[in-house]
Amino acid sequence: MKETISPRMTVNLGQLKLKNPVMTASGTFGYGEEYAGYIDLNKLGAIVVKGLSLKPRLGNPPPRIMETTGGMLNAVGLQNIGVDAFIEEKLPFLRKYAVAVIANIYGETYDEYKKVAKILSSAKGVHALEVNISCPNVKNGGVIFGSDPKIAARVTRTVKDETSLPVIVKLTPNVTDIAVIAEAVEKAGADAISLINTLTGMAIDLKTRKPHLRNITGGLSGPAIKPIALRMVWEVVQRVSVPVIGIGGIMTAQDALEFLILGAQAVQIGTANFINPHATMEIIEGIKDYLTVNKIKDVNDIIGTFRP
Amino acid sequence: MKETISPRMTVNLGQLKLKNPVMTASGTFGYGEEYAGYIDLNKLGAIVVKGLSLKPRLGNPPPRIMETTGGMLNAVGLQNIGVDAFIEEKLPFLRKYAVAVIANIYGETYDEYKKVAKILSSAKGVHALEVNISCPNVKNGGVIFGSDPKIAARVTRTVKDETSLPVIVKLTPNVTDIAVIAEAVEKAGADAISLINTLTGMAIDLKTRKPHLRNITGGLSGPAIKPIALRMVWEVVQRVSVPVIGIGGIMTAQDALEFLILGAQAVQIGTANFINPHATMEIIEGIKDYLTVNKIKDVNDIIGTFRP
Amino acid sequence: MAGKIYIGEISKNEEIQEDCFLMKVKVAASFENPLPGQFVMIRIAGLNDPFLSRPISIYSFSCGENFCLIELLYRVVGKGTQIMAGLIEGSQVEIHGPLGNGFEISDVRENIVFIAGGIGIAPLSLLVENLHRRFPSSLMTLYSGAQRASSVVGLDRPQKICHDVNVCTDDGSMGEKNLVTQVFQKDMKKFSPANTSIYACGPREMLISLAKILSKSKFSCQVSLEERMACGTGACAGCAVAIKYEQGISCYKRVCADGPVFNLADIIWEY
Amino acid sequence: MAGKIYIGEISKNEEIQEDCFLMKVKVAASFENPLPGQFVMIRIAGLNDPFLSRPISIYSFSCGENFCLIELLYRVVGKGTQIMAGLIEGSQVEIHGPLGNGFEISDVRENIVFIAGGIGIAPLSLLVENLHRRFPSSLMTLYSGAQRASSVVGLDRPQKICHDVNVCTDDGSMGEKNLVTQVFQKDMKKFSPANTSIYACGPREMLISLAKILSKSKFSCQVSLEERMACGTGACAGCAVAIKYEQGISCYKRVCADGPVFNLADIIWEY
Ligand SMILES: Cc1cc2nc3c(=O)[nH]c(=O)nc-3n(C[C@H](O)[C@H](O)[C@H](O)COP(=O)(O)OP(=O)(O)OC[C@H]3O[C@@H](n4cnc5c(N)ncnc54)[C@H](O)[C@@H]3O)c2cc1C
Ligand SMILES: Cc1cc2nc3c(=O)[nH]c(=O)nc-3n(C[C@H](O)[C@H](O)[C@H](O)COP(=O)(O)OP(=O)(O)OC[C@H]3O[C@@H](n4cnc5c(N)ncnc54)[C@H](O)[C@@H]3O)c2cc1C
Ligand SMILES: Cc1cc2nc3c(=O)[nH]c(=O)nc-3n(C[C@H](O)[C@H](O)[C@H](O)COP(=O)(O)O)c2cc1C
Ligand SMILES: Cc1cc2nc3c(=O)[nH]c(=O)nc-3n(C[C@H](O)[C@H](O)[C@H](O)COP(=O)(O)O)c2cc1C
Ligand code: FES
Ligand code: FES
């Protein structure tokens, strides 16, 4: 009798253990509720919630999104209910599930990062923090935190000092050398690194000669950016030893496997959720199928098996 | 009787006058011959030829290209016949046409840029130089010339010192702040700035766990990158006063018009040629139609009319 | 409230008016019976161009034992609808729905008024049919405006039901030469604010002028809004509309998940 | 030598063997009569997914007064061919061609040998038909290999013409259980190097082993190569193949514009 053993799917991100390497990307999965009617949230590797700030944020005026070839631009403006309302109104729902919840946080000053991190660290049901450093530092002439290794490192340390939760730092791709930033945040204590956030882009309405987005520029996501994300993950995995989470344009299990093979310990699924609410489940199943067909017993055995 | 006057299409790039703002992008139009059977080269604003180096270059081993969503990666490795063979074998063909010919040049050292610029400056039938600074500086640990404002400025000066031809400097998008580079090359004497070159990307073959490109990484082009190109052109036109040439993912007249509206004086069509050899002609006609329908008599009247 | 994703097969897709298409899509019989005002997100099965699904109201719906038939009435305005228009019979599309909240149907009133601008007739047509199961034709008045005769579309069903049908066009090529909101305004005094339900759908400018017309009245009016969408399920926060909030402050609601039907009076048009 | 771009309409697209499709495309009558070995670049009309056109050999071609019919025989191996396989009758495709250089046809010889691996039969089939206008069947020998019986495809036409047809499969489920190159090798002594033309098309590994087999002989062999393509016209330099150059040095040629047919002996396989 032939027995097929389901491949082992658990992966470790430092202290954080995940059922499988497939997580949702921040800002693309709400606080989990929107997709609970489509998929079993328990089956996810982790849920990364929408970016949280100290105070609620209204977000940008519409239009906020625009389709582009193979992708989309968004300038939602980090609309969110604020960290307190999140804990009160959204966490109880998420606690009903046996899934790792990662709070994506951001601030406009070091102090905001610090406070948000502190508040979330004592909230029951938050398993890790993901620090979004793709936002402008208002005290520093608006330079993006994540575009300077020193500033990126300081944000990382600021958050680390406030929490005992694992800290994932999420990098922006709008930089000359992403590996330098990765090294800096690793040195500053990041437990894991996720990349990439969106690339800054723009779209123009020919009829009105105005930008399609009220905010003028927005973040480009979707399969259009996958080649750039893969390249950046490759640059980073060669230079850091903390676990790396691959993000950018992942639509299928094949896409996810490409990131794992390169050396990412896990992946995040963003824009794909919009187009197919079952995307995460299909990707998990697809990875399992690939492992089974290729007689690989443990997903960890394919991580980093890229042969350049 | 109603008279329709064809709109004025000529634009100036400093001293360089173009029939219309539509040029071909380097590396995507060979030396003109390949498309002469498809379109009337006389109708182009300009032809930018394949990147030329001092000595012939074999290029990279295959596979050299890979499709991605809404784009493609290439690692042709700047294969070219060298500047001497270009002048001897290819220029005579191009001289038969009444079209501006722009030689795209690159080098691995300042000295190579200098020599190539010098040789081309005395060649009959070359109307301008476009300096590709998206290549590694071998003497400088392989850092990309175009990723550092000082190095970019020095290449610009090196070329300017050797030629009386208009010098266009072509920027790489793989940088944190492209406007800083643009300002540096403007200060160093660039007569015009073109952008963007390709974004560095990667693709992985799941079956072999090897890169799809023999060179591992390649340059991403096509409509996937258009939003990024638009954003960068917008950043640059606000900061320099020399003419800017918009490049990146232009497939249609609408796309081209978006760049012109943002403030680009001209555009280059790259990957679109591969998919539709008539792309440049359709774009020229489409711009004319747009102007006619909107009763605009001169293409210059739409340049920079963006209303953010 | 989550929709489901179906692979649908196009059984018909024809231009019934200038730039206006009627698409019939066969989906599995399990497709949930939609409420008037609900919509689907549609895209070509398996392709990434266009990348995002497009929101289209359910214009008509019927269900047999083996499959359901969804009818979509749409105008070609850009790339996505252009590509939809090019799909031939037998082509497969992904249909995600039904999505959003339908129109709220209040109890019997003296009058039910429908105001449609152009393709805005699409969700109202289903609403008319639906309301007719409970209310007599005599209560129903339809105002429908279009640019010109050749763009008048989707009236077949509602005009069979509504006892009073007022068609107008911008150029007078059909019906009165006037804006639909103005035709309605002239009639307004016929209706009693407390006992009339108004349902409207149409271009932004039409809804803004309707809001002005109604601003000093006590009429309640539900409108179906349009905004660019990515997810259609409330996850991306892309389809924002500014809404007046209880204490005088405003916030952004999601057209897809909090709408697409809103009370006209709650909408903030300038921000 | 430039091809032209046509909008073609698919009149048939069916799976004739496991994962193997025959597509018939109607194009305008002005389509240039293709040479055997030439190919077209094909993509879905008006869509950017897949983004690049795919090169496919012309398997058969006929022309009437009003239109020409291009037949393409293709195997589904990845995304592009998968999407091609899903196109239904009536769908529109962009067809760019004919492109590349055909096989060189030398004067009468004693023997003409065709060696096809899998779908490599496609360009050879047209070649067989074409050569048959000038040369008798008796000169023609076909070696055709496939993985298994269910993947043997495209033999209908050439086997009617060639007087000697040798089919083999990797698993022996049809014909001899052997590699096609080895079946040919066993017969090699039957042919005289000076008076035999060999034409081959198939997977890289097959061509490499054929090159080894022929390396010490004086046979001349033309092969049709495959490489990923972007432009198909020689402009992008993407489809490189390393070729031995006169003075012992090598260079990269373009499969699309300098080929796809090359002399087997000139190809450098390892670099
Ligand atoms: C809930 C809902 C129901 C709808 N029902 C119908 C319907 O039944 N029939 C119908 O014809 N249309 C309907 N629409 C509008 C339809 O979604 C858009 O016309 C379509 O998405 C435009 O796509 P496109 O690619 O052709 O145009 P694009 O090229 O994307 O845009 C063309 C123009 O349309 C605008 N536009 C783009 N998307 C939308 C959008 N979602 N809403 C409003 N304007 C948009 C753009 O800003 C631009 O000015 C509905 C929209 C919503 C939100
Ligand atoms: C001149 C020429 C004529 C051809 N004629 C035919 C034909 O008549 N019938 C037929 O079935 N196929 C033919 N091919 C091969 C065909 O072009 C590829 O199978 C097709 O492009 C694969 O596209 P895909 O998106 O399905 O596969 P992808 O997902 O792009 O790739 C799947 C696999 O095929 C390989 N591949 C991709 N493109 C090519 C290519 N152009 N050549 C070789 N391998 C490739 C990839 O490396 C990968 O291993 C021809 C190729 C050339 C260059
Ligand atoms: C609508 C939208 C909202 C997003 N919001 C956030 C956010 O709040 N915080 C964050 O770190 N990233 C945010 N992102 C970035 C995604 O998490 C992800 O990094 C990016 O979209 C690339 O992945 P994808 O191509 O799979 O979407 C957002 C992306 C989208 C499309
Ligand atoms: C195959 C290929 C070869 C290229 N070669 C060059 C080159 O030699 N020199 C250069 O400056 N840019 C080169 N480029 C970049 C293009 O000129 C252009 O900047 C880029 O492709 C973006 O435009 P597109 O999206 O319209 O293709 C090349 C691009 C491609 C696709
Ligand atoms: S479309 Fe995503 S929230 Fe409405
Ligand atoms: S495919 Fe472009 S040169 Fe051959």
Q: Which key phrases capture this entry?
A:
heterotetramer; A: 308 residues; alpha/beta; TIM Barrel; 16 strands; 31% helix; globular; C: 271 residues; Rossmann fold; Dihydroorotate dehydrogenase B (pyrk subunit), domain 3; 7-stranded antiparallel β-sheet; 7-stranded mixed β-sheet; 37% strand; binds flavin-adenine dinucleotide; binds flavin mononucleotide; binds FE2/S2 (inorganic) cluster
Characterise this structure.
The complex is a heterotetramer, with two copies of chain A (308 residues) and two copies of chain C (271 residues). Chain A is of the alpha/beta class. Chain A has a single domain, classed as Aldolase class I (TIM Barrel, Alpha-Beta Barrel). In chain A, 31% of the residues lie in helices and 19% in strands. Chain A has nine helices and 16 strands. Chain C is α/β, with parallel strands linked by helices. Chain C has three domains: 96 residues, Beta Barrel (Elongation Factor Tu (Ef-tu), domain 3), CATH 2.40.30; 116 residues, 3-Layer(aba) Sandwich (Rossmann fold); 45 residues, Dihydroorotate dehydrogenase B (pyrk subunit), domain 3 (Ribbon), CATH 2.10.240. Chain C is globular and about 50 Å long. The chains are: A alpha/beta (308), C alpha/beta (271). Chains in contact: A-B, A-C, B-D, C-D. At the A-C interface, helix 1, strand 5, strand 6 and helix 8 of A face strand 14 of C. Bound molecules: flavin-adenine dinucleotide (2 copies), flavin mononucleotide (2 copies) and FE2/S2 (inorganic) cluster (2 copies). One flavin mononucleotide binds next to strand 14 of chain A.
Describe the secondary structure blueprint for this structure.
The complex is a heterotetramer, with two copies of chain A (308 residues) and two copies of chain C (271 residues).
Chain A: E1 11-13, E2 16-18, E3 22-24, H1 33-36, E4 46-48, E5 65-68, E6 71-74, H2 83-95, E7 100-105, H3 110-121, E8 128-132, H4 149-162, E9 167-170, H5 178-187, E10 192-195, E11 199-202, E12 204-205, E13 210-211, E14 217-221, H6 226-237, E15 244-247, H7 253-262, E16 266-269, H8 272-275, H9 279-293
Parallel strand pairs in A: 3-16, 4-7, 7-8, 8-9, 9-10, 10-15, 15-16
Antiparallel strand pairs in A: 1-2, 5-6, 6-14, 11-14, 12-13
Chain C: E1 4-17, E2 20-28, E3 39-44, E4 54-57, E5 60-63, E6 67-75, H1 79-86, E7 92-99, E8 111-117, H2 121-132, E9 140-146, H3 156-161, E10 164-169, E11 176-177, H4 180-187, E12 196-201, H5 204-215, E13 220-224, E14 240-244, E15 250-254, H6 255-258, E16 261-263
Parallel strand pairs in C: 8-9, 8-12, 9-10, 10-11, 12-13
Antiparallel strand pairs in C: 1-2, 1-7, 2-6, 3-4, 3-7, 5-6, 13-16, 14-15
The complex binds flavin-adenine dinucleotide (2 copies), flavin mononucleotide (FMN) (2 copies) and FE2/S2 (inorganic) cluster (2 copies).
